[in-house]
Amino acid sequence: MMKLSLAIVLLLVPTFAQAWPWSDDMANQISIKPQESVDLKNPGMRPYPKHSVPIPGVSSLVKDMGASEKQLNPIPADDKSVALGGKLFQIYCTPCHGYSGKGDGLVGAKLLLKPFDLTADQTKERSDGFIWGYMTFGGAVMPSYANDLSATERWNVINYVRKVLQNGQSAVAVTPAAK
Ligand code: HEC
């Protein structure tokens, strides 16, 4: 009888297993946690600036795709803008659209709806405002980049897409630093 009840107790144990001290050993370590302060004198999260309010969804002063499409690109496509845009494109867009922009990125290959070819006539004929809006609001599958790229950064990316990718040039792959 004693043995049986012990067996039952042991069977029930996994239910409470989360409460064991070693269950969260992996989480409790010296690494810095999200929103944790590295300043010992000021522990905890940095307070928000005065008068700031939380907003839901996408942070954009432009209302929607319709309003976005009509915008004109305010950033001249000079060398500096194109270079900046190229860097950002490689970080944020190549996983799906590929270095060439043709939609042959490694992540894109796994998607049911394949990333569009940004060098195709369809996108060439879109206005800069349309592309800016796509980055801002995202598409059916494509996520929004409004919280990752500033408004100006998005225009720089467009200048890069226009000047380099849509001119048949491929991005130079940034090789990770040699080990
Ligand atoms: C997670 C994968 C993914 C990433 C990353 C991504 N896209 Fe996309 N993109 C897509 C997919 C999929 C589509 C097809 C349409 C859709 O999802 O609505 C698309 C469509 C587009 C279109 C619409 C083209 C047209 O003519 O209709 C534009 C423009 C575009 N992407 C630009 C970008 C830019 C610029 C970046 C980088 C800031 C980027 N995308 C990052 C997946 C991605």
From TrEMBL:
Transmembrane segments: none
Signal peptide start-end: 1-19
SUPFAM superfamilies: Cytochrome c (SSF46626)
Record keywords, A-Z: Heme, Iron, Metal-binding, Signal
Name by which UniProt lists this protein: Menaquinol oxidoreductase complex ACIII, monohaem cytochrome c subunit ActE
Coiled-coil stretches noted in the UniProt entry, renumbered to this chain: none
InterPro entries, alphabetized: Cyt_c-like_dom (IPR009056), Cyt_c-like_dom_sf (IPR036909)
One Pfam family in the UniProt entry: Cytochrome_CBB3
Annotated ranges, domain Cytochrome c: 80-165
